[in-house]
Amino acid sequence: MSTETETQPLLRLDHVSKNFGPVQALSDVNLELRAGEVTALIGDNGAGKSVTIKTISGIHGPDSGQIYWEGRPVRIRTPREASALGIETVFQDLALCNNLDIVQNLFLGRERTNHGLTLDEEAMEKSAAETLASLAVTTVRSIRQPVASLSGGQRQSVAIAKAVLWNTKLVIMDEPTAALGVAQTAMVLGLVRRLADRGHAVMLISHNMNDVFEVADRIAVLFLGRVVAVRLAADMDRQIAVDLMTTGQSARLSTNGHAAKEPDRT
Amino acid sequence: MSEVEDPTPAKAAAGQHDEPMTAAAARKAELALPPDIAADSVSGYLRTSVARIKGGESGVLPVVGGLILISILFQSMNSNFLTAGNLVNLLVQAAVFSLLALAEIFVLLLGEIDLSVGYVAAVSAAIMGTLLGPDHGWAWPLAVAVALLACLGIGMLQGTIITRIGLPSFVVTLAGLLFWEGVLLKILGSGGTVPINSQPINDIASRNLSPAVGWILMLVLVGIYGGMLWMRESKRRKAGLVAPPPRITLLKIACALAAGVALVLLCNTNRGVLVPIKGVPWVVLLVLGVLAIWTFMLGRTKLGRYIYAIGGNAEAARRAGIDVPGVRTIAFMLCSLTAGVAGIVYASRLQSISTNVDGGTLVLYAVAAAVIGGTSLFGGHGKAMHGVLGGIVIAAIDNGMGLVGFTAASQYMVTALVLLAAVVIDALARRGRVAT
Q: What's the half-sphere exposure (Cβ side, CA atoms, 13 Å) at B281?
């Protein structure tokens, strides 16, 4: 994968800090997300992963620091403002209505209508079918089946398709494979990869090192609210990642960020 | 490079993976499909329908089965039960229950309950009766409009308290049950009864279409229904969208026609003793009209979609940008409005409205009718049709037990047991539903 594009980052966090009372959840976080790349955000429990995605998706505002979107400074105060910019977040609970079918879920809250009166089911169904086909989500039997009848992996796929249906540029996913079996995980990771290949920026939160190394182009490690390393996935290995997550540094890696080359790789 | 994984082959492999399923899981998933999608032939359609009933997605078949069972039971005890006269009478009795159940369905779909519908209906009837009375002498359309507007106001008040303050609907509408009973007593004053002398209002429950008009109207309505269904489904088939095969569409139209013919034949049989009485009662048309409007609203508009979405997962609806408190308030308003219509039918049947209305029993019958018809108490599952069918079941039990000569005591107990059975079926169906 040609991941080292020197284009302008889609989203940039510049010295972002966030406190909850006396607890410093994020301190001086610098992070860049690029279109066409999967950036994995890893870290131990309490490292600040959730706070980071909540800051980007408009649930918490940062206390200090600046967020840049396509080079412009922006303030993201609500999830609505995040959506307006083109940022969609797939949280772990997926936010799907089990009693509605796939098409109804994909268009929930943004239904198409015939002159504002009745629902335009034909248009919605066609466009849902196209979106799912373009994401190669092919395992569902019918897009008119209720979400309650889908497997965990299929539900995750529907939630992801829902996030990218709206001209979305950045998709944030919180532990998308947490509750899935092996084959379903492979299906979802394949989907994550295709999103990036289609030109979306993807930010992936995961505990699972296998997933991270399988799908990520770039890995950012959080430790106690700080970004201690951002490196290409190819320049890292599991041991380094685990060292960074648990201690904030790795004996095999200089800790001053992504400018450094891995010392023992020759 | 020993420890650094090359991710590429794994990624390529991931894309090709289809999810393997066990045979059991695949069968289960298949059963969850609506038969419209799964079936490619008439026999397949029936097979999938039967499989879905076993899997907990029962639809209206249990209520139809229950109705047949009740009919056999009462007919064996009293041979007057299945006479044209009694069945048409039963349909007229069922109108109030069906309308109240239609009202209750809006809030049940949200996973809420409205205990006040009985007395809201009574208040609506009392307002209309008073305005029609000699003191005011209003024209009937105006009196009906004011009564229904008052009901909308009641729904808005209760809905706003529930959604904006965040109180349980059970408590707020329980307070409503008491409060509106008080208002009813206040409106009806010392006399306690207001007779309805307006001919058009009394006609709703007592007048019939002439037999010829009944036939023509039935054919026109079935024609409209069939035409719309056929056009929509053939349009979907042409566009390559999910649609049942033409035979199943024809089967549905044939069923609607059969039901229509049966209804008109039944109603056109002479049921008078001294003078001939025949024809479809107006009130049947009224119930069908309300059913059609609410079915359209729930199935084809954004508002209906949002009501189902909130009942399924309110948090998901909120995140999708739906105004959840607003939609919930509207659902309570529609509930009270439909209860208001039920109240007018109630007054029309008795040709008066009095303080003897038992709004507490009415609301329990309404909830029972909705649940017996197949609407879930837990929100998100149900259709307007369920209310009408459930109302007929309740009326059949009521009517049959009266005919056989049960005492009031045993009538209450039997109705309670039927309600309990319906709720148990609902809870079991919920457990049976694939992975909620």
A: 24
- Residue A44 inside a domain? The answer is yes
- Using a CB-CB cut-off of 8 Å, the residues of chain B touching A238 are 3
Instruction: State yes or no: pLDDT of A216 exceeds 50.
Output: yes
A2 within domain boundaries: no
In B, minimum Cα distance to A107 occurs at: B320
Residue contact B305–A119, C-beta within 8 A:
yes
Which residue range(s) make up the domain with A58? 11-96+166-258
Structural contact between residues B124 and B147, judged by C-beta atoms closer than 8 angstroms: yes
Q: How far apart are CA B100 and CA B105, in angstroms?
A: 9
CATH number for the domain harbouring residue A69: 3.40.50.300
Residue-wise pLDDT tens digits, B142-151: 999 999 999 9
Helices (H), chain A: 49-56, 79-85, 102-106, 121-134, 152-164, 182-197, 209-215, 238-247
From the list A99, A110, A142, which residue is nearest B312 (CB)? A99
**Which residues face A42 on adjacent strands?**
A221
| Chain B residues touching A99 at Cβ < 8 A | 308, 311-312, 380-381
Nearest to B32 among A94, A119, A148 (CB): A148
Q: Can you give the residue ranges of every domain in chain B?
A: 208-280
**Domain membership flag for residue A227:** yes
- Indicate whether A75 belongs to any domain: yes
Residue B19 confidence (pLDDT)? 46
Q: pLDDT tens, B7-44?
A: 333 333 333 344 444 555 555 555 556 666 655 666 76
Q: If you measure CA to CA, which chain B residue comes closest to A163?
A: B320
Residue of A nearest to B301 (CA): A118
Chain A contacts of B36, Cβ < 8 Å?
144
Count of domains in chain A?
1
In the predicted structure, residue A259 carries a pLDDT above the cut 60: no
All residues of chain A having their beta carbon less than 8 Å from the beta carbon of residue B309 are: 97, 100, 104, 108
State both tokens at A70. 């396509």
CA–CA distance, A68 with A66 (Å, rounded to integer): 6
CA-nearest residue to A99 within chain B is B312
**Which residues does residue A23 pair with via DSSP β-bridges, in sequence order?**
A20
